[in-house]
Design a protein that fits this description.
The protein is 0% helix and 54% strand. Strand 5 and strand 6 form a beta hairpin. The protein has no helices and seven strands. The chain has one domain. It is an all-beta fold and 79 residues long. Strands 1, 2, 3, 4, 5, 6 and 7 form a seven-stranded antiparallel beta sheet that branches. One of its GO terms (molecular function) is sterol binding. InterPro entries: OSBP_sf, Oxysterol-bd. This is Oxysterol-binding protein-related protein 9-like. Pfam families: Oxysterol_BP.
Length: 79
């Protein structure tokens, strides 16, 4: 049995020395195996953007498949 939380909204990380503001979204959160040995995992996509520099990144948090596979994997792309 699992519990899932869909995180909505966005956050802002400011780098004051460089006057940069990074806007980021949040991945979903999951509580897995809540009746036996519980563990937490993130899943979904997170985007980070800076309008001043034009830097952006897409981070994908991969959830563990039901059978096999590995926990806690991510892939990222910097644009």
């Amino acid at each position: 049995m699992s519990i899932g939380v869909h995180n909505i909204g966005q956050g802002c990380v400011s780098c004051l020395d460089y006057d940069e503001h990074y806007i980021l979204t949040f991945p979903n959160g999951y509580g897995r195996s809540i009746l036996t040995v519980p563990w937490v995992e993130l899943g979904g996509e997170c985007n980070i953007n800076c309008s001043k520099t034009g830097y952006s990144a897409n981070i994908v948090f991969h959830t563990k498949p039901f059978y096999g596979g590995k926990k806690h994997r991510i892939t990222a792309e910097i644009l």
